[in-house]
Amino acid sequence: PTVINRLDYTPPAWLVPQIALDFALSLDATRVLSVLSVERNPANPAPTLRLNGDGIAARSVNVDGQPHNDWRMDGADLLIDLPGEAHTVTIETVVNPTANTQLSGLYASGGMLCTQCEAEGFRRITFFPDRPDVLSVYTVKMAGDKQKFPILLSNGNPVASGEGEDGTHWAEWHDPWPKPSYLFALVAGDLVASRDSFTTRSGRKVDLAIYVRAGDEARTDHAMRSLIASMEWDEEVYGREYDLDLFNIVAVSDFNAGAMENKGLNVFNTRYILADPETATDGDYDAVEGVVAHEYFHNWSGNRVTCRDWFQLSLKEGFTVLRDQQFSADRGSAPVKRIEDVRILRAAQFPEDSGPLAHPIRPDSYQEISNFYTATVYNKGAEVIRMMTVLAGPERFRKGTDLYFDRHDGEAATCEDFVKAIEDGAGLDLTQFRRWYQQAGTPRVDVAVAHAGDTVTLTLKQTVPPTPGQPDKQPMVIPLRTALFDRATGKHDGEHLIVLAEAEQSFSFSGHATPPVLSINRGFSAPVAIASPVSNEDLVFLAAHDDDPFARYEAMQQLVVQHLVSAVRGELSPAQRDAGRKAIGEAFAAVLADGALDDLMRGELVILPGESYLHEQLAPVDPGKVRAEREDLKRWLGETLKAEWTTLHDRCSAVPYSLDAAARGARKLKTQALVYLAPAAPTEAARRARAQYDAATNMTDRQGALMVLAGLDVPERAVALADFHQRFAGNMLVIDKWFSLQAGSLHPDALAHVQALAGHPDFTLNNPNRVRALYMAAAANPGVFHDASGAGYRMIADLILQLDPINGNVAARFVPPLGRWKKIEPARAALMRAELERIAAQPGLSRDVREQVSKSLE
Ligand code: HT7
Ligand code: ZN
């Protein structure tokens, strides 16, 4: 396989300051005429112009207005030797959007045409130096049938339009901001717009439009509000203003990812635009707000300052995730947002960091760049920059980002440029900190606490585990917000920022006449795993008293993790099991009774650690045992606190629907109460869930109730599932939920349900949302995926093989769950590996799947 290495970067030989594109639109044969003004790059002059292509052929090539035959192909790339300093190269291609099931390049979705060019889709439309360090000013003309494509959109501003012959029309767009080809976009279709406007602080009036299919416009209000809030927030918090007179968003049903930040023309998965109370949960509302903000924020972190090469992906993605996390924290409950972000990191990124696909946030090599749009690059990337905010403090960090944007505006920059700007602007020395960009793996910090006289000494030892290609690691810089609580007063004497930078280091604090209770990595100030021997008693103390809400959550989690891990390992005597459960029950009861807590936070505190996080603590892991112990603890908590759960369910059910925090908290707890009652009192839980389902005025309540029913073997289950399907027939996003709920359910027959659902008339492999709804939920459900027979593994491997020729990008996303085989007990591990080998033996695999499978077998 061809491996691209970060250190092999060379500047492009030719630059393309201008490009004019002319599209004759058609669903199955769109003609593309591309006129490139090319100039030799003084930084790396060479005679050959390399234009990348992928699955396209040149119909004609002209140079300086003359037909030119002296070009050649090198694989999929078109090469032309050019004698002068500057030339005009014109190339004609024809593409078939309907046949483009990969959804990369120009493709058809429900009768409309749209593009997805990141990372390397532009080369599937026309020949071009398709690399992010070639920035061009785009002029785009498109013509097509007026009935089929009444709306014609591209980046920048509309400059001209008119009528053509035979019912056609045309439009021309011009984007004044030079951009890389991955930010090019075109949309043509029958769409309706919801409109609003925003005036920037320097007085520019920006027209905002969200384009959707007719009938969906009533579900765009939340996205529009989120967009306006994002524009305001970026001015206020980062000093960044929008820079065009219009900002368009288009929602499409067929999309490989969440959304795309094309300059002035964001394209979104409908999932992250459409929301109303009846069809979208509170979680969906948050996701819409977060993704709209994320894509908008890219206008500066990604578009105005872009990436030099794809190894720098975290430069834009890590930073933009941090920005969207900060925005959402400011809009809602900051502690709850932090907990959710850490939960995602632990569920998705920690397993990546400890598996065969582990890579640094700035990878060193790749075969297929699409495989590097990972939780590591995005979420760990955000955590790494968040640590800079911890080290610098918000004001100095802002000085750093101001300098970064000033210094690199209009450039294709590197992660090193970012770090240097933060160093210079914030006045930090990040020399050693840079290792976070180089080393993969989640550092583990072992903590020992010693007390003598009035001094407490913390001895911290860090270990960065070996990862593929990186057997030996250097110590990282690990900032740990820490507090020492006095047991008697329940208070601490101020927070300390401990910066662990050596393999082993001690920190002493005086003024502690009695041994204090340690609260460390408060706010999850560093993305590490802390191993500290804290007694159950101290964890119960912290869960009740810590003034850092994240630390309270963490204490609850640790209490449960410690107990479940020991239980799964068979280390608990009956008395120890009772004592462990008693401590957990006590902590839960305190949380349920604590009048000072809001319900949103209470809801977080009573969520048990997820199975994938528990798997991370155990190697090798028996997923069946983890499921059994976790469910049994749930049942025990359901029984022990039955009165509390039923009272809670009654109280929360009386709160009317609104989007305010109190009502959202009540909805969250309402379903949590059912989650605990379900294993303890299934008949009562089913009755309550059915009542919640029937009375629901919103999707949060309805989905929550259905989720609980889907996991139970009760008569209400089938009735509610049938009702849901019929009630929302035709609404693709809600039918996705119907598939997901069943695939992710705790029902003992969930695997058979998934197998049957694959044959349901609503199931299709051509829509990524539908594929993910069924199979991602199944792959994330240990009860399905890790079925001891191996049928879950076989099902996912079959899916990969079937989907790969249709959409290799999406197919490759299903490989990592199988790749975790080394962490699983031997019998299942052998079955998982066998499935990987079966996939590897298939000829003609996409580069996407081939790379993931071969690395997973190493
Ligand atoms: N920057 C966008 C990445 C993206 C993408 C990547 C691979 C294949 C399809 C894709 N669609 C969008 C999304 C973002 O992070 O904002
Ligand atoms: Zn992004």
Question: Which structural traits does this protein have?
Answer:
eight-stranded mixed β-sheet, binds (3S)-3-amino-4-(1H-indol-3-yl)butanoic acid, binds zinc ion, Zincin-like fold, globular, alpha+beta, 42% helix, Immunoglobulin-like, 858 residues, five-stranded mixed β-sheet
Give a written overview of the molecule.
There is one protein chain. This protein is of the alpha+beta class and 858 residues long. The chain is built from 28 helices and 31 strands. Among the domains are: 1-188, Immunoglobulin-like (Sandwich), CATH 2.60.40; 728-858, Peptidase M1, alanyl aminopeptidase, C-terminal domain (Zincin-like fold). The strands form 8 sheets. The protein has an 8-stranded mixed sheet with strand order 6-5-9-3-2-12-15-14, with no helix packed on it. Strands 17-18-19-21-20 form a 5-stranded mixed sheet, with helices on one face. A 4-stranded antiparallel sheet has the order 10-11-16-13, with no helix packed on it. The two termini are 15 Å apart. The mean pLDDT is 98. GO terms for molecular function: alanyl aminopeptidase activity. Its EC number is 3.4.11.2.
Instruction: Kindly provide the radius of gyration, computed on alpha-carbon positions and rounded to a whole number of angstroms.
Output: 28 Å
Give the helix proportion (percent range). 40-55%
Q: What is the end-to-end distance? A: 15 Å
Number of strands: 31
Quote the CATH topology of the domain at 1-188.
Answer: Immunoglobulin-like
The geometry reads as globular
Structural class: alpha+beta
Indicate the proportion of strand residues. Answer: 15-25%
Poorly predicted tracts of residues: none
Strands ordered across the widest β-sheet? 6-5-9-3-2-12-15-14
- Average pLDDT works out at 98
- At the fourth level of CATH, the homologous superfamily of the domain at 1-188 is tricorn interacting facor f3 domain
In terms of quaternary structure, the protein is single chain
The assigned CATH architecture of the domain at 1-188 is Sandwich
Tally of individual helices: 28
CATH class of the domain at 1-188: Mainly Beta
- Mind summarizing the main beta sheet? 8 strands, mixed
Q: What ligand molecules are bound, each kind once?
A: (3S)-3-amino-4-(1H-indol-3-yl)butanoic acid, zinc ion
